[in-house]
Amino acid sequence: MDYVYGPGRNHLFVPGPVNIPEPVLRAMNRNNEDYRSPAVPAMTKILLEDVKKIFKTTTGTPFMIPTTGTGAWESALTNTLSPGDRIVSFLIGQFSLLWIDQQQRLNFKVDVVESEWGQGANLDILASKLAEDTAHTIKAICIVHNETATGVTNNLAQVRRILDEYRHPALFLVDGVSSICALDFRMDEWGVDVALTGSQKALSLPTGIGIVCASPKALEASKTAKSVRVFFDWNDYLKFYKLGTYWPYTPSIQLLYGLRTALDLIFEEGLDNVIARHSRLGKATRLAVEAWGLKNCTQSEEWFSDTVTAVLVPPYIDSTEIVRRAWKRYNLSLGLGLNKIAGKVFRIGHLGNLNELQLLGCLAGVEMVLRDVGYPVKLGSGVAAASAYFQNNTPLIPSRI
Amino acid sequence: MDYVYGPGRNHLFVPGPVNIPEPVLRAMNRNNEDYRSPAVPAMTKILLEDVKKIFKTTTGTPFMIPTTGTGAWESALTNTLSPGDRIVSFLIGQFSLLWIDQQQRLNFKVDVVESEWGQGANLDILASKLAEDTAHTIKAICIVHNETATGVTNNLAQVRRILDEYRHPALFLVDGVSSICALDFRMDEWGVDVALTGSQKALSLPTGIGIVCASPKALEASKTAKSVRVFFDWNDYLKFYKLGTYWPYTPSIQLLYGLRTALDLIFEEGLDNVIARHSRLGKATRLAVEAWGLKNCTQSEEWFSDTVTAVLVPPYIDSTEIVRRAWKRYNLSLGLGLNKIAGKVFRIGHLGNLNELQLLGCLAGVEMVLRDVGYPVKLGSGVAAASAYFQNNTPLIPSRI
Amino acid sequence: MDYVYGPGRNHLFVPGPVNIPEPVLRAMNRNNEDYRSPAVPAMTKILLEDVKKIFKTTTGTPFMIPTTGTGAWESALTNTLSPGDRIVSFLIGQFSLLWIDQQQRLNFKVDVVESEWGQGANLDILASKLAEDTAHTIKAICIVHNETATGVTNNLAQVRRILDEYRHPALFLVDGVSSICALDFRMDEWGVDVALTGSQKALSLPTGIGIVCASPKALEASKTAKSVRVFFDWNDYLKFYKLGTYWPYTPSIQLLYGLRTALDLIFEEGLDNVIARHSRLGKATRLAVEAWGLKNCTQSEEWFSDTVTAVLVPPYIDSTEIVRRAWKRYNLSLGLGLNKIAGKVFRIGHLGNLNELQLLGCLAGVEMVLRDVGYPVKLGSGVAAASAYFQNNTPLIPSRI
Amino acid sequence: MDYVYGPGRNHLFVPGPVNIPEPVLRAMNRNNEDYRSPAVPAMTKILLEDVKKIFKTTTGTPFMIPTTGTGAWESALTNTLSPGDRIVSFLIGQFSLLWIDQQQRLNFKVDVVESEWGQGANLDILASKLAEDTAHTIKAICIVHNETATGVTNNLAQVRRILDEYRHPALFLVDGVSSICALDFRMDEWGVDVALTGSQKALSLPTGIGIVCASPKALEASKTAKSVRVFFDWNDYLKFYKLGTYWPYTPSIQLLYGLRTALDLIFEEGLDNVIARHSRLGKATRLAVEAWGLKNCTQSEEWFSDTVTAVLVPPYIDSTEIVRRAWKRYNLSLGLGLNKIAGKVFRIGHLGNLNELQLLGCLAGVEMVLRDVGYPVKLGSGVAAASAYFQNNTPLIPSRI
């Protein structure tokens, strides 16, 4: 028996890894295969084409690396930059902090632009830095699209506008780990040079593929980038792309079939419908938080995230206890507050293959936990607010009309 | 892609087939095996011992027949009775009706004791019939423990008391399809002669095993019962039990392993805890129905069912539309009203491997559907009532303390 | 850990249940569903059409009953015949014996036509019985297409010719359990009235569906057949077919999806190619047996079975020991000799989703076991004979050309 | 339908990824989980202890990195060495070549000791290099235990003896990708400083975990090693080991459960029995090659590999055609010849969860393919040689005695 077994389903509402749909579990339920047979390259070729759609790019080149988001970060950086390069990076929460830590350890000179946790990237500072940088010493702008620790979504279109305004050639590198396939993301339109995500996030797969997509400009930069890299080197992939065998080393057969099905599900639903669904789930969650009389960690509407909501708890409550109790009593998995906001927030992940009733079950659970820990929430209040919104906005399931 | 695909989980709240726990799905994910090897009999032997525990019998003999509940009914009847035998049977809903239909087609003389749908078996009539039957012409009493169509639980202990009062030797045959493993059921204590259930109900397996358990008295009766039977004949099983090979024909290997895991899960949780969990789920559902201002099809508390609740809708609403819309818009599967109460009730199945938050998600969904079809429910009202109850009564998950 | 665990794959060569292909395992790896939703009937409707193809019938009506082959037998008999009806039935091995036993217990008057085990049905006796029966007292001819105990395939076309010759109206009932989907079977062309198979045989599924297909004449007969039946009654199915809900009681959701995939695999390969593959596997097995210097239990080429080969062992060897040792030492599952030929034969099942190299692994294993038990086989001899045949006759896999 | 579908099982005999046992597939068939719950660390803690057993170390520290063997290589090197460090590395085939390429790209000064492909590492040269290196400028010896391209196993005990003889402090880094869990490997006894393997090899899992095990000396070296690393940095793991949360970034939940089961299977069989089984499979394969009149690519018995056999084909045959045809006609996956020996050898991988009859099926298939491409092999000859050996040497399966 599993150590964690509890009756019924686990209600998984951490912001990753997320719930895997049954068709994807089925697709991955298979033996290994020879990845040098004609079959795996044939499948890979189509996957590489299809995966571009989730980035909304036609000109990008994707790499499906057997790694996590952290590895995808490293691949994005080391393939485009050289040690000592100056980059601008925004610190707005735990995951941007970790990326910045990586950037520094990889020996880039990082201009860290810090915001209060709960706020988005300070783009005014970006503008002033670019304005000053007439010598183009800034080689890249690094930004998380969605900060998973605080539930803050940055405005990437605005970053592009600022870059364009100053005609600055810096590369535009985006961590889309908790956004791509869930939030509106437009690689080509926004001129993103490297975008990346992980399979265990909105794609709703197990961990194991870091998907990195490079613009032509990023590919060009990779030719001169001097950062040492082997495992994460795009050139090794490009060499095998040309050969038509695609893989410099062994991929996970199961994840390839899983990705095939995950994409099929997304395309069947329609990527824009997927994004609209996340918008509904995010909005409903925020309405519930409001109804509970609690504050969103995200300080302004402009940054509200549709994939994760960090909820501030009153000072007399330890949010860690909320997460622990949710798991122990209601089989509900919530996200902890991290680092600076440990104990102060708990997080509801609402991304991936998820629907309205799953979220309402979670919200009902949060209400009970809140009472368990002494916060006098009115039971049903958050659920009522969320379901009022859902009842007005949820479309019929197209396959069932 | 599946015809029915919708994003996220299907919320399965029909009163069978019910949700299968992941450990059971895993256990069944296997190739076939030679059922004449030493391994399958070894497993079967232990299963036959363990399956007796869910009937709370030490003296009964179980048969795990590759069939459905309907087949289990037939096995119970044909092994114990002869054509022309007089039996008393209670008609209180669609499933008791179907069983009676089967009894009549099998050529028994059935004294049908009918109640209004929503009421339990009329045991006063039973008493008077037994009182009159000094010649013991009544050979069996047939009763459903829990009528799945109306959400009515009959009082089996009372049936036994009446039989004892009149010292009547009639066999006591019980359909426990939607009760065993979920409601309090005591084969030995209540002197039940044949009890039966189906794998797809509270055991939370796929359809495919009809489990029939026979008391020593029932086994004795089978020696003289003249009903024609082959596939359902207990004697064929008993012959193979003696040989130690256990199977007169090919069992489903997958279901055997699934049953093994299903029982492990039930024993790990504790059968009494499983029953207590169903009691919580049933009570919470009824509190929600009340909060919605709707009526339970079950007319009196004494018959309330902890595995299924049939909810009466106002006359201006067609309950079929509720079920249809729940499925089409919210990926929620509810039970239809059947036969006499078609269009008048919808049913919430709350049996099997299910927890509190799953049910609350369902209840939130029902609220939205009710508004969709024009019933002015206050959103969150049922969820609030149910979760208030849960918050006071749900134990910690033992494996996580 | 499983009681039976051994390193590597189990080599499953019993004549049922057989190896399940991975795509079928995947398809069945799923939660239950509401079988009263629109989805399950929609799938069932197409399945009922498609399943007719494996019977090669356009006029037949199929029933997919949640039962085993034994139940399918009972359904075939009780729906078409009345107690006391005279039938002709051929006893040529254990499974025809069991069917005859069932026929007798169901109160038909059975003219048993016995052959030596290893021989096919004696059709001369059939001819003489029909010739004599000018009053048409014989209501049905019951015959197994392929006797699984002895590896004997009967000539069904010849049965039809004899029936036609005497213009005899007897129903023609066929057990196709170990033939349909593997041997050439033509329901319409041969005028078969009821044909049946089980899911765990050449369809390569788990046990659990007995598929029975009835000709218009059989359906007509069911209107007047007086055998008592409920669970197995075709009329209950026909009623639900008309309603478009298809199921009188709960089907196995998993098996329906499994059947869908099993049929897809068969149709993709091509039913005639599937049959040709079985022909190759059967021929190769017989060549191996010959090379080993052993005798086929089947006494004449006209009856050779392409789905199972029963191999006679020398009198100084107990075939049970061969089966036991194969399992204990080589993870190889062979079929036991049954009843009259227990200890005298072991059986190699070569049906279902199986290919050439799997069989060669089995044959190599049998060779080692034969030496283990003291039969001086030349190692490699059977494999050589079989692979010489395969090397000349195996087509390229079309999906890989 | 899969592009590659063929009837029956795929016979997977590439030297990785290898066949996954059913119990492991089952264990991995699950939804994601919160890796920050108490359950995942609890499981991880035990896994880290257990995984040390497959390295035969009690003093080593293992890291289970979400990557492939290539990433594991990089982790081994960058954590222990600094750019410019001199290392000795042996080039004996394609995989040692790739590792050397990585070493050079990571800016180490590599003394490449090349052997003819088919020979093992030239340890005489190692001895002379160490003898000369009194200044201890050599920082590490890098060696593949088993070269997967040529089927050559190096003598690691001898490497240790040489190091000891010269009292040389160089680190001893071993690629055990195609050896650990299959060949005799003794980290502590042989004084290996870093050993590594990949999940998709003898552990018989999907690709996705690079397991790296570091000796105390290697851990010490990591404190001063100046190679740039983040994703592969052991320190990040060690930090989380101390915290008891174990994971610096998201692991694959499925692979953790898979690894748990894979280890359980290995421990149940007994690691030494697993190694003995590989020894049988290797020996039998070589006997078959000999019987076919073909040459082993491995030039001397001392280097024979028990996990992969590279078979030289006559000059008039293109081995690529053998691999292609095996896949297209017999559903048999063999390994290609790589680089220098492309077209000249084909490879039979016989590692992981595999048994005797599986291998015999493969060998029978190879025989047919050889004839297909014009090599006049005597059918059955290799199978006979292999099975003669098996029949004398295969133990009973303990769980079945």
Automatic annotation (TrEMBL), chains A, B, C, D:
Q: Where is the Aminotransferase class V domain?
A: 49-288
Q: Per the entry, which co-factors are needed?
A: pyridoxal 5'-phosphate
List the Gene3D superfamilies hit by this protein, alphabetically. Aspartate Aminotransferase, domain 1, Type I PLP-dependent aspartate aminotransferase-like (Major domain)
The protein's UniProt keywords, in alphabetical order, are: Aminotransferase, Pyridoxal phosphate, Transferase
Family the entry assigns = Belongs to the class-V pyridoxal-phosphate-dependent aminotransferase family.
What positions belong to coiled-coil segments? none
* Protein name stated in the entry: alanine--glyoxylate transaminase
Gene this chain is encoded by: LOC103326783
